[in-house]
Amino acid sequence: MPEGRRGAPRSEAARLAILDATAALFAERGYDHLSIEGIAARAGVGKQTVYRWWSGKSELIAECLLEGMLLPERFVLADTGDLRDDLTSWLIEVLSVLESATGEALFRSLIAAATANADVGSRLRESLADPRLFATRLRDARASGELRADLPIDDVSETVIGALIFRALAGAPSDPGFAERLVDLVLGPRPVGSR
Hints:
Layout: H1 12-29, H2 36-43, H3 47-53, H4 57-66, H5 83-98, H6 101-116, H7 118-129, H8 131-143, H9 153-170, H10 178-187
């Protein structure tokens, strides 16, 4: 939130009610059908209260993302010690969510919100795949010899997320083996002699 906000101090109960209402309505209706009036009614506050604290629905979506209210915790990349297996499992999990009716609608709505507000786009990127998380894991795997030395680490997460966004926008179902092929494409084939 911007510093120096005017008006009455924010009530934490009202703030949470507004964010809960935003997350619920976003999941039910998507970004295009989300309205401040509907959020206010669901939260039991006046729309002027919502507008006092947020300038519009994009800011609300951004705060819901920041609070972890929109994306499931299972989108966190595990660390079992095998980057390829972890990334493949993560992709399979994300694809299963994207291919569900609610997941596809949620993801498309998030993309719409991200195009309307750069802050939402940045927070969506952080929520789905923090490049620093990928970069740290990739650098460790490269240092251990699990990955080739010339792998362009900074491009890997962008490529993976880009493939997911394209599939979500196209409504293309993943075929068996897609996650494994994508991991091989961005990381290169598994070195001979490793699992």
